[in-house]
Amino acid sequence: MIGLEDFVADNYSKIGNQVLPPGASLGNGLTPEAARDLGLLPGIAVAASLIDAHAGGLGVIGADVRGHGLICEGQPVTSRLAVICGTSSCHMGISKDPIFVPGVWGPYFSAMVPGFWLNEGGQSVTGKLIDHMVQGHAAFPELQVKATARSPD
Fold first, then answer.
1. According to the model, what pLDDT value does residue 125 have?
2. Strand 105-109 vs strand 89-95: parallel, antiparallel, or unpaired?
3. Does the structure show a pLDDT above 90 at 39?
4. What is the CATH number for 140?
């Protein structure tokens, strides 16, 4: 309806149709051309990436919490909920089996943690709410002065 037929042509060849799990090795590493452009060595490992919220979610859900006195210590990773905030916010949880919840995105298999199902939901434009909360805090002016003094620019 909006003129994107060329994306689905030839089995999605323009945008790709191979889906790999996060961290899966791609090809034979960095190509000589890419290495030259980036100032790196050819052959450096290249892997399938994650979108920003999923990378944050993986860090929260997969974090080693041993020895910090947290109540989640000793609990399965499927008992954790990651809340990743930026321009928007995203709540993410994983499960061993698919869970279908009306109004919640997913479940998506191996989208964030290989072998687990991901469900997520979020809110747009919550970054402005975070800005408001941070900038409204009593310590914000002092911290802003300190941050500006430490900035190299």
1. 83
2. unpaired
3. yes
4. 3.30.420.40
